[in-house]
Amino acid sequence: MTVQILQWTAAVYLAAGLMAGLGLALETRRLERASVALLALGALFHGMSFALLHIADDPPPLTDLSAACSFMAWAGTVFYLILLKRSRLQRLVVLVAPAAFLGAFLAALRSPGGAPALSATGSWPHAHVLLASAGIALLGLAGLAGVIFLIEHAQLKSKRPLDRRLPLPSLEALDRVNAVTLAVGFLLLTLGVVTGMIWLQTTNGRPWSGAAHETWSLVAWAVYGALVVARFVAKQGSRQAAASAVGGFAFLLFAVIGLELIS
Amino acid sequence: MKMILLGMNHLSAPIEVRERMAVDEPGPLLQKLVDSDDIEEAVLFSTCNRVEVLALTHSLENARHRLRAFFRRDLARDDYAADFDLDQVTYEYRDGEAVGHVLRVASALDSMVVGEPQILGQTKDAYRAAVECGACGPILGRLFQHAFSTAKRVKTETRIGERPVSVARVAVDLARQIFERFDEKRALLIGAGEMGETALRALKKHGLESVSVVNRTPERAAALAAQFGATAHGLDELEALLGDADVVITSIAGDTPILTLDLMSRVLRDRRHRPLFVIDIGVPRNADPAIDAIDNLYRYDLDDLGAVASENTEQRAREAERAMAIVVEEQQRFDGWFAALRAVPTIRHLRDRAEKIRSRELERVLARLELGDAEQAAVDALTQSIVNKILHAPVSRLRREAEREEGMAYLEVARVLFELDDELDRE
Question: Does B19 fall in a domain?
Fold first, then answer.
């Protein structure tokens, strides 16, 4: 049942992405609005699948990579939909929907009885995956906003501003997304690291096993710590913050997911 | 029924002529026009760029003379008419051409700035004024409703009005790309130039509230500040004001740039790299192009803004071609409806003739038969039904055929077959 709902979720996200792309190509606002509505519907299905997971399994097997990616996609989508209410971010749906599709699709591909990659007993692994995934999702949104910011910034600087028929979010809105997602994302990532350490403490008797995943995750957390200081204490400029968000997320992806895939 | 339009616009007549022809209160003039025997319906359209009268008439030539007299006597007020040749400053359109022109005007395809949004509202005002004084009847009313729906189609199906073509609007558009909202932003106007003021006005229209004005002469700065509800400052306060501003509009006279690389680097550093949009409308330029190297500072001079505006103008021209195709399609649709009106007299007389025959024969038969009221009503209804059913097919066909020029032959044949010519001639 959960897999079926995930399949539906992936299909709805895909439809939202295609509709957003079509809306962009045909310059039709109605299609864009419809794609946002579809994305919200997909997020609803996606949320339902997690709720069902909680009913079916105790604790839910979120500790494998595909489930974590799926949760990241869901958290990112929900946060995007919340931000959408406050800023002109509608056009970002063309990037958010495909990313959400990938997350849900990977989870739907997973065999229903697939064993989790790590031993998952008690509520600490659950809390670790939920918090860290949500944190990564938000930092992913910061990276996404950073990419759009850098494109728009380059166009404005080159005196060839983007065609207004592609009304991307304003630089100010993108910068605000960057600040909010960086702050909340780093907080969640920190909580994810802490709960991960407690999980290790309860299973291995010590908070650190020296595994590559732990080392690189901690390095990534430290990198983001530096970015938070640069942004909120040293008052880094918007363009530098956008570039940092893109670079930081690329490193985080490598540290958390890339290494997992390589190993 | 025929349609004729006599008018002048920004291409056919100089502003001195157009401004003398402008009408604020078209009602009384229109009433005078439709009171004459030659004009059935009329709409007067007067804006800063055009003065036009559209009229519906039975006689094109008479209406033409009447409209020309109207332009000379009522609009130009005789005393001035001698100063220009009406033929040289006016244009004339008839029937389908007049319809096409009205659709083009309402869709902003005949405007000085193609795609401008005001013209549709002005067209609606002209139509409303004509309706209120009773000069606009069902036929011109239908044409104007058709023109409004055509304009709506053009607006939704093309991007003719999407991109700004004036320097001030381009500046606003760029500012919207940088800032999410203007109500909490501060603008700084350096110098007193007309274009700078226009750009500032455009920004204020989009919600910008806080403005400071800097000028070499404090009196001029104070006068401008009063105009915009702003604060006035001398040039000595420039650096501090730059630190607070989000949008800087500069058009001050001077041989060397006042916004130098040194000054702006310092300002951006002190303001912790908050974005700053510099609109440099000064000639020679007030902002050193080298400041483009500073992060989070976006500088656009007159050439940059002009380049964006002209690119947008080219795009509007391309969209205008698509819009014209819509106008042609809608014109054909209206022409069909208008042409079908030619069948109305023939159809009416055909029905009258049939009714006369039915009434006469019914009267004759009822006089011979001794029927009660209910039976008489039943026979009356029966004969009416028979006549309606017989006429239904030819009348529908006549209506359809009248929409085409070739279909006129059907009207001719109907008139001959049913001997309607005498009645039509009498009418």
Answer: yes
